[in-house]
């Protein structure tokens, strides 16, 4: 919850208004590196953040940036004020004077409207923190340039305050990033290709009339660097330079993921086999023809899914051995109870109960296939990925069809009289 306190974080004083400088100030009001962009970027990152400690940091600084927006807006308004009544001042920027009435608006110093395209939000906390550090650095430079073009002492004091807080925020974001204890160049979860990641390509070569000199430094020599001399000019068979490592991902297997994939596949295999036994009972229990037809189609799909799972094991060089799936066993037992209870209910209520039980099964399978497919992708088993993707697509389609049938049943089902009367009595007056 936001609460506006009617005083500025830094008291603004403008002794000599300067409409042209007021226009410059709009760069920090509605510009790419301005306070609104920073407030929105950090606040939305904070809303997305699952880390409670760093979420608090992002919301704190995002809120402070809103207060800075108010300071900058107040400064700009005071400098632009002469445009309201002075023709010469208005001519400094007719857009502000005529369209905006001599006040601030969400535009930059060139009159371009603020846009959410300014925001850098990836949902990856360490990447977002790096973006925030860079954003604060850019804002600091903008404030520095504004100070250099400012002659008003009160304005310079406010700008100095705002510029200083940019460094404070840089420090906070930097320390938050360091506290995550992630290696400096560890971005995301997929490792870079060994060898390729340490090759520096000398792709701008020449001297004198043909180009600038080639230089060496810690950015391309020492440590693990391998300097690639003009790779585009090498024939590839001269042996003059090391060959480019072109593999797109690590060649070594990721420890433990193979076993995890097999375990997930065995769980799915047992789950699908249990389902082939449960579906005939659900077909028989279904009273709505469309629901019975869907269960019949899905039974055939499930049998095909078992065949694909067997093929997955074959591609991995393993026997298609199922592992008891307690999760599915519980869902099947729950389905049996729903079928028994359904015999005591009307057609729509009984079928809605069946749909609920079936959807719980679908959601279990969707989660299982998604996990298995992601593991296969990590291990670069493209054939297995393709097979699992087909199974997953069928499960997702079945879930959508169940939703459609449920909506149809609910639209035709009538509430029992007692429930309907209770709903009317509890309904607020006038609604």
Word description of this protein:
The chain is mostly helical and 431 residues long. It is built from 14 helices and two strands, in the order ααααααααββαααααα. The protein has helices spanning 19-25, 27-30, 35-48, 52-80, 87-90, 94-99, 125-148, 153-179, 257-285, 289-315, 326-342, 347-378, 382-412, 417-426; strands spanning 199-202, 226-229. Strands 1-2 form a two-stranded parallel ribbon. Helix 10 (289-315) runs antiparallel to helix 13 and helix 11 runs antiparallel to helix 12. The protein starts with 18 loop residues before the first helix and ends in a 5-residue tail after the last helix. It comes from Bradyrhizobium zhengyangense. This is DUF892 family protein. It holds the Pfam family DUF892.
List the helices and strands and how they pair.
Elements: H1 19-25, H2 27-30, H3 35-48, H4 52-80, H5 87-90, H6 94-99, H7 125-148, H8 153-179, E1 199-202, E2 226-229, H9 257-285, H10 289-315, H11 326-342, H12 347-378, H13 382-412, H14 417-426
Parallel strand pairs: 1-2
Helix pairs in contact: 1-4, 3-4, 3-7, 4-8, 7-8, 9-10, 9-11, 9-12, 10-13, 11-12, 12-13
Question: What is the structure about, briefly put?
Answer:
The chain is mainly α and 431 residues long. It contains 14 helices and two strands; from the N terminus they run ααααααααββαααααα. It is extended, with a radius of gyration of 32 Å.
Main sheet summary: 2 strands, parallel
The level of helicity is 55-70%
Sheet with the most strands: spatial strand order: 1-2
Task: Assess the beta-strand content as a share of residues.
Answer: under 5%
Low-confidence stretches: 415-431
Element-by-element helix/strand order: HHHHHHHHEEHHHHHH
Q: State the secondary-structure class.
A: mainly alpha
Specify the number of helices. Answer: 14
Beta strand count: 2
For the residues shown, what is the average pLDDT? Answer: 84
Q: What distance lies between the first and last C-alpha atoms, to the nearest angstrom?
A: 29 Å
Q: Which overall shape is indicated by the principal axes computed on the Cα atoms?
A: extended
Task: Evaluate the radius of gyration.
Answer: 32 Å
């Amino acid at each position: 919850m936001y609460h506006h306190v009617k005083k500025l974080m830094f008291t603004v004083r403008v002794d000599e208004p300067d409409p042209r400088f007021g226009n410059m100030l709009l760069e920090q009001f509605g510009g790419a590196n301005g306070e609104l962009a920073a407030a929105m970027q950090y606040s939305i990152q904070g809303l997305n953040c699952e880390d409670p400690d760093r979420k608090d940091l992002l919301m704190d600084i995002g809120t402070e940036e809103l207060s800075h927006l108010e300071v900058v807006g107040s400064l700009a308004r005071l400098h632009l004020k002469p445009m309201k009544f002075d023709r010469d001042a208005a001519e400094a920027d007719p857009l502000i004077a005529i369209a905006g009435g001599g006040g601030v608006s969400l535009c930059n110093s060139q009159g371009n409207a603020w846009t959410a395209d300014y925001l850098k939000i990836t949902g990856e906390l360490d990447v977002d923190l790096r973006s925030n550090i860079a954003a604060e650095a850019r804002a600091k430079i903008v404030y520095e340039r504004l100070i250099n073009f400012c002659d008003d002492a009160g304005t310079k004091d406010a700008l100095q305050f705002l510029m200083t807080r940019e460094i404070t925020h840089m420090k906070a974001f930097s320390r938050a990033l360091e506290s995550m204890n992630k290696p400096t160049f560890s971005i995301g979860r997929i490792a870079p290709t060994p060898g390729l990641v340490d090759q520096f390509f000398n792709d701008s070569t020449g001297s004198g009339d043909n180009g600038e000199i080639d230089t060496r430094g810690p950015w391309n020599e020492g440590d693990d660097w391998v300097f690639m001399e003009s790779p585009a000019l090498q024939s590839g068979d001269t042996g003059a330079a090391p060959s480019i490592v072109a593999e797109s991902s690590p060649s070594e297997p990721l420890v433990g993921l193979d076993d995890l994939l097999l375990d997930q596949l065995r769980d799915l295999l047992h789950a699908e086999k249990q389902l082939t036994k449960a579906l005939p009972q659900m077909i028989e229990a279904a009273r709505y023809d469309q629901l019975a037809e869907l269960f019949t189609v899905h039974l055939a799909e499930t049998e095909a899914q078992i065949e694909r799972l067997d093929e997955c094991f074959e591609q991995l060089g393993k026997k298609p051995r199922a592992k008891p799936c307690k999760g599915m066993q519980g869902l099947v037992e729950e389905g049996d109870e729903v079928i028994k209870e359904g015999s005591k209910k009307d057609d729509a209520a009984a079928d809605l109960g069946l749909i609920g039980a079936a959807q719980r099964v679908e959601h279990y399978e969707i989660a299982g296939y998604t996990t298995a497919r992601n593991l296969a992708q990590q291990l670069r088993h493209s054939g297995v990925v393709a097979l699992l993707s087909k199974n997953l697509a069928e499960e997702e389609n079945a879930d959508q069809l169940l939703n459609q049938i449920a909506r149809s049943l609910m639209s035709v089902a009538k509430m029992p009289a007692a429930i309907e009367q209770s709903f009317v009595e509890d309904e607020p007056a006038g609604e």
